[in-house]
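Quick one: structure tokens for this chain, please?
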Amino acid sequence: MEIQYFPTARNLWMGLSGVLFILLLISMSFALTYRKMAVQTQEQVSEIQKRELKFLSEFQSAVKGESKLKKEVEALAKELRAIKAGFYQSDDQIFLRRRGLKAPEEELKESLLKQEDLIPEKGVLGGKMRFYDIAEMKVLSRKWVVAGFEDGHKAGRALLEFRISDDGDITWEMIDSYLR
């Protein structure tokens, strides 16, 4: 019997088909992995697009809200200017500054806090009538102020006239008052 050193065509064909089968399995594995990654990537892209749309919608709502708030602030500022214009005019401020007050409204209110003797009403139950709250004081013009007073039990409002001397001293006179 003779030993053959060269494979026969059949053996060659079987070996080649085995290698081709293994290559086919490897390429199918790569194809499935690639397909899975492509699906995952598409899902991620889709999720990012959804979040982007949600963000844009929220951003547009915020911009609309900001615009609405700006309009409200402008309306309130306009209303405040109208209220101030109805009472305390800028020419009154100029007049009071020329009379020596650097911050007219604040200085008038601080001076009035010290004027307890102007209040015609007497306190009850041991209370002492006084002007109590700067926020309750309104400068109406270059000569009048409306202010609230109380003793802790009774409260009222007063209309006062003020004068500023040449040396900047403020004097007060009660015009009218009432209890609430």
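The first helix runs from residue 9 to 87.
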